Amino acid sequence: MARKKTPKIRVNVKASLSRRLREVRQELFGEHGGPELARRLGLPARTWYNYETGVTVPAEVLLGFIEQTGTNPTWLLAGEGSKYQRGFDSVDLSDLAPIELIRRGLERLEQEPSEIRVVAPENIPGDVLSDYAAVNRIPLKELAKKSVDFSRADGYIMAFRHWIPNPADTVAVQLDDDAMAPVLPSGSLVAIDRSVTDPLLLQGKIVAACPEDVPMIRWLDLSGRHLLLRPNQLSREHPLVPVEVHSLASGVILGQVVWSWSRFNH
Question: CA–CA separation, 139 vs 118, rounded Å?
Answer without folding.
Answer: 18
